[in-house]
Each structure stands twice: as structure tokens, then as C-alpha cells.
């Protein structure tokens, strides 16, 4: 009950020069047999990313891919949400307005994914659906072509 009183009231403005940042979309998350594979969580996110990438390319919006370099001592971070939160927070702190596409996100457990999306939306990003994003991009940037 306290969250609505403190957070989520301010909305970030979508900029005039957007870029779609794909954060660590590793094949391992979508490859059957790999230890990181999570079909119920990552297949939908993969489909959503492909859909948004196609729309961005159609509208000549930049698409940026990031990746994580793992430590050679065998340590690795396989929490997609942690990297997404870090990138989103960094973007906001550098003056960008980060928008996160709900369906394009996934993690090894739905509760982790949902909690992180809620927290980002309340404090430092706008979480939107794929449908909203595609419609908005068409309306705002489709006319410019």
C-alpha cells in the first residue's frame, strides 16, 4: 500500500532518438540441452525481442546488442534480470529514459522477473508491453520515414 504513495507517479518521456538495447541475449537461454535453457521463460522473450528488432530496423531505429564476458575462474552471473536492472539504472542515471518491454524479459523464475519489472517500473524505468511499444513506435516514428 505504501508504494503508490511514494513511487510510480512520475513517468519518463520517450525520446526522439530511441535505441533498442538487447541485453545479453545469449543463445544458451534458448538452446535445448544447455544448462541455462529455460523454454517457458526465455522462448517468449526471444520471440518478443525478434519482433521489436524487426520493427526497429523497419523504422531505422538503432539496435544495440550487449554481452557479458564471464570470468575465467568459472564464476558466472546467469541472472538476466540483474544485468537488465544495472543497464536500465545506468541509462536513467546518464539522462536517458529507459523503457523496458515486459514480454522481452525473462529470468529463470517468474517471481524474480515480475519483482524486478515491478521495481524498475516504480523507480527508474517505464515498463510497457510489446503491443504498446510496437504501436507507439509506429505512431511516433513510422510517419518520419
TrEMBL record:
The record's annotation in Pfam families points to: Isochorismatase
Give the organism, scientific name.
Melanomma pulvis-pyrius CBS 109.77
Task: Name the domain of life this protein comes from.
Answer: Eukaryota
- Which InterPro entries does the entry link to? Isochorismatase-like_dom (IPR000868), Isochorismatase-like_sf (IPR036380)
Gene3D superfamilies for this protein: Isochorismatase-like
Record-stated family? Belongs to the isochorismatase family.
The name this protein carries in UniProt is Isochorismatase-like domain-containing protein
What residue stretches are annotated with the Isochorismatase-like domain?
85-129
